[in-house]
Write a structure and sequence with these properties.
Layout (H helix, E strand, L loop, with lengths): L7 H12 L3 H19 L6 E5 L3 E7 L3 E5 L6 E4 L3 E7 L1 H7 L4
Antiparallel strand pairs: 1-2, 2-5, 3-4
Length: 102
């Protein structure tokens, strides 16, 4: 079984087809949407929540520092500093579609 990977360009092509605009123009729009989302997630605020109705929620949350984590290869104890992580929670429409049996 082969997994199809969609890229930003594939999204731009579909957007251009739906809106009836050129691929170059739709690529600029798609780039800007992703840039704005990236900028919002990279803000210095500890919690960032981006809610896109009928699609889902993208959150950025802080994690705690782990002073006694272990490297599984060497079994050496290491310190992992606090950092931010992202989380995606699908919306109702997307979740109900993904729950259907294949």
């Amino acid at each position: 079984m082969r997994i199809r990977t969609y890229t930003k360009r594939d999204i731009a092509i579909r957007l251009g087809d739906k809106l009836g605009i050129s691929t170059r123009k739709s690529l600029v729009y798609t780039d800007e949407v992703f840039n704005v989302i990236r900028e919002l997630l990279c803000e210095d605020k500890p919690y960032v929540r981006i809610e896109i109705r009928n699609f889902g929620v993208i959150e950025s949350k802080p994690t705690k520092a782990k002073p006694k984590a272990r490297n599984p290869k060497t079994n050496e104890e290491i310190f992992v500093p606090a950092h931010k992580k992202t989380h995606f929670k699908p919306g109702k429409i997307l979740k109900s579609y993904l729950r259907k049996p294949i």
